[in-house]
Specification:
about 110 residues; alpha/beta; four-stranded mixed sheet; 3 helices; about 35% helix
Length: about 110
Amino acid sequence: NPLPTAVFCPNDAIAASVIKTLTQLGFKIPDELSVMGFDGDYIGAHILPALSTMVVPRNEMGSSAVARLRQLISGQPVSSLLLPVSLLERDSVKDISSQKQAQTMAS
């Protein structure tokens, strides 16, 4: 069974723990396995390798949740909301763009 090439974690704290555990097991992050987090927590900048993550607008998410809760309590209809996220590229994900370029040129 081939190993996966990447692990996507539901939050940065779990991703930090995954990096620590995989490193202790002898894996080289990101050369052998990429790790990606989700939420943009401060912990990602303070681990080695620094964690690549999706940054979510926490303040906007919280205030929107409170506003929707108030609407529900007052019996008003609540619509769905899609908030923007952004990719924060750091060092925990292997850059394979040069590999793909080489494969395309060889084909």
